[in-house]
Design goal:
The complex is a heterodimer of chains A (258) and B (484).
Chain A lengths: L15 E12 L2 E12 L3 E5 L6 H8 L7 E6 L2 E2 L4 H10 E4 L11 H12 L4 H14 L15 H13 L5 E5 L7 H16 L3 E5 L3 H7 L2 E6 L2 E6 L1 H6 L4 H11 L2
Parallel strand pairs in A: 3-8, 3-9, 6-7, 7-8
Antiparallel strand pairs in A: 1-2, 1-4, 4-5, 9-10
Chain B lengths: L1 H7 L20 H8 L4 H26 L8 H12 L9 H12 L8 H18 L4 H22 L3 H20 L5 H16 L1 E2 L1 H21 L3 H30 L3 E2 L9 H28 L3 H16 L2 H15 L8 H27 L2 H9 L4 H31 L14 H7 L9 H29 L5
The chains are: A alpha/beta (258), B mainly alpha (484).
């Protein structure tokens, strides 16, 4: 992790990137998300923490409608998510997502993984898409792996390819769903470094993660969720040093205690 | 840490020992025998027992093969030759029936002076398949196409082909070889029009028929283009309706009118002249080519969120799988005409192809559904998250992987279907196994000959099915990406 927080270089604009109002979601009769209100401005780096089953992943999966919400409003980059399939595809092409298990396409090379969506969704010419892809692979520091298949890469490399694949769509917002949870300890750092670099460039990011060091270094806001509700949100310094609710204190003592 | 270490420890290795070679594999025939055949008392007993059974089978059938007669004009003549050569009471096969009637086993009752036409059709089939099946391997392509060229042209010359058609075939085969060396994709347009060309070569008649059959989907595509922008579903339905209506009501008249204006015809051959392996391969190849796409559509429909589409797919698949193929073939030969508009006469082979296709497609759909189910949910989510719409996600992400997983099952279905083509005997077509052999035995000279035709037909079926099986294994190896 970088010694000095580079937070001063990251500017947050007044423009709203994501606006969630009074959103509720149920799995059958199970109430997973309760009355979520969340406004994310352009350039914000938000870390969502909380115990497992608290609805963190479900929340960010609602933002690109991998999960459907049943009441309330979600507006992403000025487009409201409804059952209108055109709006959904529009939002998805503007919002990148990185998964816990990478979800690279194993039958395509690394380069093809990265150029697929630009070519087929954005209609970028192949040559240009490949140039962009190579640039982003360079950025995540694995340009030499472009012609390999995902199965030939390590977990950390695969996750960096997944980040590059999302970046190739030039997204306005990036969602990270526990990006380091499936990685061996020595590979976590290489992925986090990539994410920090991305944050320094001003990308709007929402990360579900248990990496509290990352939260302290990069986030401008930490959100704590429990039982489907946003319990507490604050700047990282305040969040870690003076948590307000008992639930947050307990959680922090458990994950920072070791 | 390392600094102190270097000072306190008198010796620090700075070069590593070279890697030791792996131990000898201790291969060798004796070792292999000991490990695989005689590793213990049970294994030894089983090995000896197995060897005895093989020896017994060999001894029983060897005489029969060794005494086989290839040159005779009737079964009784065969028996006389065997008795004269090997003594009274000796057994021997009478493969002379194959030598004399091979043409019927291959071509059925196809006019002998037109045998070159199915031969040409088969040769060009290989050219059409090359970019589809062997697109990745220049070596295999080269071998397949070169052997095809030599065999096809040689056979056509022997069978007596008009010079013009020989030149045409040589030209296409030559272009196939050239394209295979330069860019195999050049052959794809030929692969697309080949089905219609093949139909025309086999059945003959006017070339305008296939041309107008081809016009219908083009009109359907235009209808889709007009409507797709506003209502994709409606567009797809309209395209289907336009295509089918054109085929049913307009294509026939248009073809005969065009034939009146510009005659482009070769000698027609009726469907009841088809038989033997020509019939099996025609039905088999058509069934294989049609049942795969239909099976994919059915599998996707069964996975669909839309209730109506899903229900229709489930009903279709379960109904077709629950009914014996022979029942469907009877439907094809007797009942299908009742469902069609009056006046449309539907060729019997075409009807059988349709039934065989939907039968295989129902099985195919379930095999592919297995492949779809084996894909991790994350693949769908990643495709969604990148903004790919349903069809693009299916085409680019889901199906390539699901079909690869399903290759063994798909090829098994193909093989089963190809062997099932012999069941057309029940609707009066001359399949090579039953009807053709019956037809041969109907001649007093070959009355009572059973084993030899079965062995001959069985051997050819085995070669083709074994070829398919090997191809599927090659394909699996070629598509392997996980480097386990």
């Amino acid at each position: 992790m970088t010694e000095q927080s580079p937070r001063h270089r990251m500017t947050i604009s007044d423009e709203v990137a994501i606006d969630i109002r009074n959103m509720n979601k149920w799995y059958g009769s199970f109430h997973v998300l309760r009355d979520i209100d969340l406004t994310v401005h352009k350039g914000e780096r938000i870390v969502i923490a909380g115990p497992s089953g608290s609805g963190k992943s479900t929340l960010i999966r609602c933002i690109n409608r991998l999960e459907e919400h049943q009441s309330g409003h979600i507006v992403v980059d000025g487009v409201e998510l409804t059952s209108d399939i055109k709006n959904i595809d529009k939002v998805r092409s503007e919002v990148g997502m990185v998964f816990q298990h990478f979800n690279l396409f194993p039958h395509l090379t690394v380069l093809e993984n990265c150029t697929l969506a630009p070519i087929w969704v954005r209609n970028v010419p192949r040559r240009q898409a490949e140039a962009t892809a190579r640039r982003f692979l360079e950025k995540v520091k694995i340009p030499e792996q472009a012609d390999k298949y995902p199965g030939q890469l390590s977990g950390g490399q695969q996750q960096r390819v997944a980040i590059a694949r999302s970046l190739c769509m030039q997204p306005k917002i990036m969602l990270f769903d526990e990006p380091t949870s499936a990685l061996d300890p020595e590979m976590i750092k290489e992925v986090l470094d990539t994410m920090i670099e991305l944050a320094e460039e001003g990308m709007t990011m929402i990360c579900v993660t248990h990496e509290m060091g990352f939260a302290q270094a990069v986030a401008n806001r930490v959100i704590f969720m429990d039982q489907g509700q946003i319990v507490e949100q604050n700047a990282p310094r305040e969040f870690f040093n003076s948590p307000q609710s008992e639930r947050t204190k307990l959680f922090l003592s458990q994950i920072l205690g070791h | 840490m390392s600094d102190t270490h270097a000072q306190t420890v008198p010796f620090v290795r700075d070069t590593m020992l070279p890697a030791a070679p792996p131990p000898d594999r201790q291969a060798g025939a004796v070792r292999w025998l000991r490990e695989n055949l005689f590793s213990g008392p049970v294994n030894t007993v089983l090995t000896i027992l197995g060897a005895l059974i093989v020896w017994f089978l060999f001894v029983t059938f060897w005489d029969w093969f060794a005494h086989s007669v290839w040159n005779a004009s009737s079964l009784s003549e065969c028996r006389e030759i065997i008795a004269a050569t090997w003594g009274e009471g000796a057994r021997g096969a009478c493969f002379a029936v194959i030598r004399e009637r091979w043409n019927q086993y291959i071509f059925g009752f196809y006019p002998p002076d037109l045998y070159w036409r199915p031969t040409m059709t088969f040769g060009l089939l290989m050219v059409a398949l090359a970019p589809v099946l062997f697109g990745a391997s220049l070596l295999i392509r080269r071998v397949v196409l070169a052997v095809t060229a030599v065999v096809t042209l040689g056979a056509m010359i022997v069978l007596g082909v008009p010079a013009g058609w020989l030149a045409f075939t040589a030209l296409v085969l030559g272009f196939g070889l050239y394209a295979s060396e330069r860019n195999i994709a050049w052959l794809l347009p030929f692969s697309v029009i080949y089905p219609l060309l093949g139909v025309w070569f086999l059945w003959g008649g006017t070339l305008w028929g296939p041309i107008f059959v081809l016009v219908a989907p083009v009109l359907g595509w235009l209808a889709w283009r007009l409507l797709a922008g506003r209502a994709p579903m409606l567009g797809a339905v309209a395209a289907g309706v336009v295509t089918v209506l054109f085929w049913l009501f307009l294509a026939g008249d248009a073809a005969s009118d065009a034939q009146g204006l510009i005659p482009l015809a070769i000698e027609p051959v009726r469907s009841d002249r088809f038989g033997g392996f020509l019939l099996s391969l025609t039905i088999g190849v058509a069934g294989i080519a049609l049942s795969l796409p239909l099976g994919i559509v059915l599998a996707l429909a069964r996975q669909s969120d839309m209730f109506l589409i899903k229900s229709l797919a489930v009903i279709f698949i379960e109904f077709i799988r629950g009914v014996p193929l022979i029942a469907l073939l009877f439907v094809a030969s007797l009942l299908l005409n009742y469902f069609l508009p009056p006046g449309t006469s539907f060729d019997i082979i075409l009807r059988v192809i349709i039934m065989v296709t939907i039968f295989a497609a129902a099985y195919m759909a379930e095999v592919i559904r297995g492949g779809l189910a084996a894909l991790p949910k994350g693949q769908y989510e990643a495709a969604d998250a990148l903004g790919l719409d349903y069809w693009k996600a299916q085409r680019l992400i889901v199906l390539p992987q699901a079909l690869k997983i399903s290759i063994p099952g798909i090829v098994s279905t193909f093989i089963g279907m190809f062997k099932d083509t012999t069941l057309v005997t029940f609707v009066g077509l001359y399949d090579p196994l039953k009807s053709m052999s019956d037809a041969v035995r109907a001649n007093i000279a070959w009355k009572g000959i059973y084993w030899e035709p079965f062995i001959f037909v069985g051997a050819i079926f085995f070669l083709i099915c074994f070829g398919m099986s090997r191809y599927s294994m090659y394909l699996e190896r070629r598509l392997q990406r996980d480097h386990r």
